[in-house]
Design brief:
The protein is α+β, with helices and mostly antiparallel strands. The protein is built from 8 helices and 6 strands, in the order E-H-H-H-E-E-H-H-E-H-E-E-H-H. The chain folds into 2 domains: 78 residues, no CATH class; 100 residues, no CATH class. Helix content is 28%, strand content 18%. The chain starts with 10 loop residues before the first strand and ends in a 14-residue tail after the last helix.
């Protein structure tokens, strides 16, 4: 008899706020997800990243979270953190503009995800890899082109054999919404600020 399909756990997604910092630490583990990075690779000059690799990178990223910025989204399965996606305007990642293959294509780019579009973003941009052979999971931390395509992204440039620049435009995002979704986003409920955060 054919085996029964395994039911996958329901996923939840939450912005990384200070109270969820312990969940990120659990998810990243002692090595900060990979080699002491703590999601600081694209934020720093290479010499600075190397100098503070490990604990100093961890504390630097923690300060970003503590400041009230929301640098990404954590995925949960059965209440446990299982995934992470960094989400901020491209300006938060200055190392991208120093990259030979990922330099800015124009002035309208923003590295954002779905929920940022609801706040007025115009384009989501990602830089996934195209694999010619199997590699360790740690080396595809920017995602796979195939997954981006399935999510509705379009390849706009291929600066190298192994790297794509892919975008998801607001028009695509709007067309995937139901009328009730759009109404809720056009006339949102009052925004609740994270505890301890002041200002708009």
């Amino acid at each position: 008899m054919p085996s029964q399909p395994v039911a996958l756990p329901a996923l939840e997604f939450h912005p990384l706020t200070p109270e969820r910092w312990p969940d990120l630490v659990t998810l990243f583990g002692e090595r900060g997800a990979c080699g002491g990075c703590w999601c600081m690779w694209w934020r720093l000059a290479r010499s600075e990243w190397t100098r503070q690799r490990g604990e100093a990178n961890k504390q630097a990223f923690r300060q970003i979270v503590a400041s009230g910025e929301i640098p990404g989204i954590i995925a949960y399965a059965d209440g446990q953190p299982v995934g992470w996606c960094s989400v901020e305007p491209r300006e938060a990642f200055p190392a991208l503009d120093r990259s030979r293959t990922l330099k800015r294509l124009d002035d309208l780019l923003r590295a954002v995800v779905d929920y940022v579009c609801a706040g007025g973003g115009k384009v989501i941009e990602g830089y996934p890899q195209r694999l010619g052979k199997p590699v360790a999971n740690a080396w595809v931390y920017m995602g796979l082109a195939s997954a981006f395509l399935k999510a509705g992204f379009t390849e706009v440039a291929r600066p190298s054999k192994s790297r794509s620049i892919m975008r998801y435009t607001l028009q695509t995002w709007v067309s995937s919404r139901t009328p009730s979704d759009l109404a809720a986003e056009m006339y949102p409920a009052p925004r609740v600020r994270p505890p301890g955060r002041r200002g708009p």
